[in-house]
Amino acid sequence: MLTTTFGALADPTRLAIVSRLSRGDATMGELAGPHRITLPAMTKHVGVLVDAGLVTRRKVGRTMVCTIRPEAFAEVEQWLGDMSAYWNSTVERLEELLRGDGHGH
Fewest beta carbons less than 10 Å away: which of 11, 49, 50, 88? Predict the structure, then answer.
């Protein structure tokens, strides 16, 4: 799942879409506007995000509305937390080692 998520977010346009949707729902037209891309191109980008489980879309009348799925980012948050804990403990061990070497000579 993480590789799918990071793959979907690796594209700058899709990352911008997710960023925009984090502030609230948006129509396809609203999402496409700032990027100066066609609606079919935006539909493809949103489709990648939908396939990755990061975004949902629903029809409201004749308009397609997109919504972010915050729960889909829980796995990313967990992974980032694990990486942060690992690197913090690694840095602490290195600091202890360096302090220990400094006192031994």
Answer: 88
Query: 63's torsion region: left (phi>0), alpha (psi -120 to 50) or beta?
Result: beta
For domain 2-104, the CATH class is mainly alpha
Task: For residue 67, list its beta bridge partners.
Answer: 56
CA 84 from centre of chain: 17
- pLDDT band at residue 43, thresholds of 50, 70 and 90? very high
User: Do residues 67 and 56 lie in contact, with contact meaning Cβ atoms separated by under 8 Å?
Assistant: yes
pLDDT above 60 for 64:
yes
Question: Percent helix, strand and coil across the chain, each rounded to 5?
Answer: 70, 15, 15
Angle value at C-alpha 31, between 27 and 35, nearest 5 degrees = 155
Q: How far apart are CA 32 and CA 50, in angstroms?
A: 16
CB 77 within 8 A of CB 90: no
